[in-house]
Amino acid sequence: MEHLGDQTRLHLSFRKHTLVTVTDPHTAMKGGDTIKIQPEKPLYFDAAGMRLL
Question: What span, in angstroms and rounded, lies between the C-alpha atoms of 43 and 9?
């Protein structure tokens, strides 16, 4: 988790993938919690950090 003032970034693990998502800055989540997400307008990147279309 990264608390950034107006938002909190969650660093998630899913199978062999790492996901980063943004949530409300006052989220009650903590490290190690299991959550369910529904991505809206996801962005995808390759291993070099280049955005995939």
Answer: 14
> Which residue has 């989540």 as its token pair?
29
The size of the chain, in residues, is 53
Taking the CA atoms of residue 34, residue 7, residue 45 and residue 41 in that order, the dihedral angle to the nearest 10 degrees is 90
Mind listing the pLDDT tens digit for each residue in 8-21? 888 988 888 888 88
Residues contacting 48, CB < 8 A, separation 6+:
none
Structure tokens at 3: 């608390």
Delimit the domains of the chain by residue range: 2-52
